[in-house]
Amino acid sequence: MDDALRKTLHRDTLAVREAVERSPFGENSEALYLTSGYVQPSAESAAQRFAGDEEGFTYGRYGNPTTASFEQRLAALEGAEACMATASGMSAILLMCLGLLKAGDHVVCSRSMFGSTIKLIGSDLAKFGVQSSFVAQSDVAAWAAAIQPNTRLLFAETPTNPLTEVCDIAALADLAHNAGALLCVDNCFATPALQRPIALGADIVMHSGTKYLDGQGRVMAGALCGSQQLVTEKFLPVLKSAGMTLSPFNAWVMLKGLETLDIRMRAQSANALALAQWLEAHPGVSRVFCPGLASHPQHALAMRQQSGVGGAVLSFDVKASSPEQARQRAFHVLDALRVLSLSTNLGDTKTLCAHPASTSHGRLTEAQRQAAGIGQGLIRVAVGLEHITDIQADLSRGLETLP
Predict the structure, then answer these.
(1) pLDDT digits (tens, 9 = 90+) for 24-64
(2) N or C: which end of the chain has fewer CB within 10 A?
(3) According to the 3-state scheme, what is the secondary structure of the chain?
């Protein structure tokens, strides 16, 4: 497909058509290339390819045609020049940090980000001299106040995991650029089906492809989307050395997932909104967190940034009089499930329920959890494609019998 034609196509078409050129065999479904090495046409070509002066695949850790197809497709959906695929979402974050930061540099992050992200940046990278500040997700003034002369990166997740807080991407992009820094947005929850951060001013879009890009809970994957310069000059050299490489099989699975991304996201988001409205009226629930609800603090912003759709993840607090009772009641609801899955993943076609305080955010201190608003009574629901009445009925088993 030539570039002129590619620019005329809708992203729904790119989701099923963008890939490397077909092989001489003429396959219609993208080929899965299971190889660790490549035969070179000549010694001179090999030298040029390893030096980066000639296009061509050289070694499995550096690249693969199937992985390249996934990268091209995701970049097209995000409206980015290029993409670098990785073995997991967390490896994508590590790759970004190693490519952009050095000892003495400073990062500003939302304090509501995924627990492993907070630990990686706030604790693990701190051992190597990278400084960090964590601020309130939706408070633009707090982000501005946290920026220092050595700030090189602002990193936001919108909506956040698990409280679905939304940040103003365009406002944070302006802050970052005025400070000579870059803005990265974790787009796992919304995906390019609903939200395209680069169009709003972000420099980098990060994905845990393990979630909605795959969409059926089959493989681990990650990605960074951005300019060709960032991918080629900053991320690729680190990938070659450190090897956060995405396997060709996982890349192939992701390619298939991207083909149905839009219709899945819209169907699951519709289910999530219906469930959120039902939970909001339930006497056993004290609060529901879902950007699609008018009661959500950033509802209007979410509707502007997310194509008028709230996304497929929500959280809710069970009513309780103490943290101990809240934990007991949340566990009761989860243990009563018979149809839905008790699982800490998200993005599956199956509805997944989890207790963030003891799982995904369990490694954080209690103070960090409280700062992020994650209480013991909070349950996260990544809504799937089951019929909405069956989802409601399964949650009712626990909510109607709270101790």
Answers:
(1) 878 888 999 999 999 999 999 999 999 989 999 999 999 99
(2) C
(3) CCHHHHCCCCHHHHHHHCCCCCCCCCCCCCCCCCCCECCCCCHHHHHHHHHCCCCCCCECCCCCHHHHHHHHHHHHHHCCCEEEEECCHHHHHHHHHHHHCCCCCEEEEECCCCHHHHHHHHHHHHHHCCEEEEECCCCHHHHHHHCCCCEEEEEEECCCCCCCCCCCHHHHHHHHHHCCCEEEEECCCCHHHHCCHHHHCCCEEEEECCCCCCCCCCCCCEEEEECHHHHHHHHHHHHHHHCCCCCHHHHHHHHHHHHCHHHHHHHHHHHHHHHHHHHHCCCCEEEEECCCCCCCCCHHHHHHHCCCCCCCEEEEEECCCCHHHHHHHHHHHHHCCCCCEECCCCCCCCCEEECHHHCCCCCCCHHHHHHCCCCCCEEEEECCCCCHHHHHHHHHHHHCCCC
